[in-house]
Amino acid sequence: MEITIQGTEVIVTGDRIIGFAVNNLVNRFEATTDKDESWFYTLKIFMTRPKKFNIINLNREAGSNILYVDLTRDMMPFGGRYEAQFVAYKEGEVDQTEIFDFWVSDSLNPECAYDPVPSEFYQIEDNIHTMYEEVK
User: Fold this and answer.
1) CA angle at residue 121 from 113 to 85, to 5 degrees?
2) Does pLDDT of 108 surpass 70?
3) pTM of the model
């Protein structure tokens, strides 16, 4: 699956399957944006059955317009259809794209469920732990 963000439009080419529900750090979600490096992105994820919501912080490859995240089983624990939306932030400005969909295949261990806390908070917590270790 190849994703391109042009303004508020999301263009998806190829199949819309990104991996298995309980895979951990083996599937990379990538998109190319037309916004420069001053913009920070998150990805809102919606699943209709069961009703689940998540927010994932996206990284940017240095010196490029490629956004990415290595997916964890906590980010997308269920197989099925997901709807998503990119949200870009820059100095008080917020820009949201249209909603697009993709699929996560079923897994052998579907018992994982979303924590009530969005993934972005765990990502922030990991960054704080890393900064603390560097200061020590």
Assistant:
1) 75
2) no
3) 0.75
